[in-house]
């Protein structure tokens, strides 16, 4: 269970983690500045298990993976948005930050209220009323990456299989 | 197997790299990559992921570039350490295309050096990797972990995007550049108008556009959410790459009967210079309808508009004029080669005489990194690609995106300004671009 931090459309990677902090790749340090230019109160007050709820095009802008890393390291359990920018979507999956696309939940949920999220099932439950929302399921290929816990582990297995089996590496990825 | 379907250029490139006769939108394909790129911000994360994956060697040291351009020359100890991580990896792996600080901004350097070519598939750990679509390749920005996977395997997976076709018919008006066409387009479709989709640029107006103008257009496809931005190669493209290509390549073109998710037709003759107001690249107005706000800084440079055409245009405006006493003007050629050519042509002297600061190639000011960070409440006219909150510095600073002629005129006027407001006729600067 976590509290909702609600934001609008087009939350971009520059406000999620400003470039002035990109001299580091340390997740904890990035988390300390997460959302700083949009909501200076966020980093100090976010609690593990909280969720970010936002409008359309969440994560637009830069390819900086520091953005989903910062959100994840800040303790955010899930980002629920009406839609995600493409690169952010991929990056979130790759670094193991759960995300759900669910415009209905975004329209309904209010800042500060409590929600329960089942990422695997794609369900979002509004604690106060018991109302539930169903997010679109991930494409099967992405589910496979998620099952591995992200792209690093997925790749590790594939490379290990390739090393053991000689030429079978590519097949393992399908 | 079903009959081959007509395909867009994007679909053809993905099919060829997936080793299949055809693909269709929505399909997931595993594709081989022709070239990869990371910079000093994204490479350290990619290198860490690469090692965590258990990889030891990049798939091909001739096809992985690392370019130091964001915080380079290093602005502080920590960014120096980031550059060091990238530099040491490049040496360890024997990367042929490692580019030190000042060599250039990645998206100017790679096309100019013939490292990204028609018909190829290119990934870069930088969102503006879509720039290379100007030469007719599929190129898209990815995160560091995606790049690490491709560095290790020479492959990635992609969803075949639907394609949006943008047709610019008629002829360009004076002062209107590729930058204005793409700003206009983003303003029309909004900053998520092309999310998960390919943007294909066509039309007679683009035939007039130089490669530099096309690179500026493709560069900003990401500001509409586009997966890639792409031009079908024409003679100008083939002439450009013929002098540069470092590998054999096979150009492809969209079939005449290819399917598009949507076709937008714009009359180029109706488009005037455009400005994106704070705080989004889709907050676009024609310059004639924008308040002439006073400004503190002008930045002419970046992977969008730091190319030779851009510098020539700016120099024609600034020649014999002075930057307004209350304005700082920064000019950054996008690569060493561009800088050298600008020196030969006398452009750098014009900028210096006008009172500009001219720097070695860096992305610094564009992302509020260094060399031109804005203070609280300050306002900048920039030829770069983004004007998000805090993009160029303080979260209460403001950036206005415009073409180099407008930026240069604004530097002289001390406010947003059309060159004609300074009494400059287009004929005086025409023929340079």
Automatic annotation (TrEMBL), chain A:
Catalyzes the isomerization between 2-isopropylmalate and 3-isopropylmalate, via the formation of 2-isopropylmaleate. It comes from the Bacteria. Heterodimer of LeuC and LeuD. This is 3-isopropylmalate dehydratase small subunit. The keyword ATP-binding does not apply. Its EC number is 4.2.1.33. The keyword Lyase applies. HAMAP family: LeuD_type2. Pathway: Amino-acid biosynthesis; L-leucine biosynthesis; L-leucine from 3-methyl-2-oxobutanoate: step 2/4. It comes from Thermaerobacter marianensis (strain ATCC 700841 / DSM 12885 / JCM 10246 / 7p75a).
From TrEMBL, chain B:
InterPro entries: Acnase/IPM_dHydase_lsu_aba_1/3, Acoase/IPM_deHydtase_lsu_aba, Aconitase_4Fe-4S_BS, Aconitase_4Fe-4S_dom, HAcnase/IPMdehydase_lsu_prok, Homoacnase/IPMdehydase_lsu, IPM_dehydratase_rel_enz, IPMI_cat. GO terms for biological process: L-leucine biosynthetic process. Residues 11-414 form the Aconitase/3-isopropylmalate dehydratase large subunit alpha/beta/alpha domain. Binds 1 [4Fe-4S] cluster per subunit. The keyword Transit peptide does not apply. [4Fe-4S] cluster binds at residues 303, 363, 366. It is an enzyme of class 4 (lyase). Its cofactor is [4Fe-4S] cluster. Pathway: Amino-acid biosynthesis; L-leucine biosynthesis; L-leucine from 3-methyl-2-oxobutanoate: step 2/4. It comes from the Bacteria. GO terms for molecular function: 3-isopropylmalate dehydratase activity; 4 iron, 4 sulfur cluster binding; metal ion binding. PROSITE patterns: ACONITASE_1 (PS00450), ACONITASE_2 (PS01244). Heterodimer of LeuC and LeuD. Catalyzes the isomerization between 2-isopropylmalate and 3-isopropylmalate, via the formation of 2-isopropylmaleate. This is 3-isopropylmalate dehydratase large subunit. It comes from Thermaerobacter marianensis (strain ATCC 700841 / DSM 12885 / JCM 10246 / 7p75a). The gene is leuC.
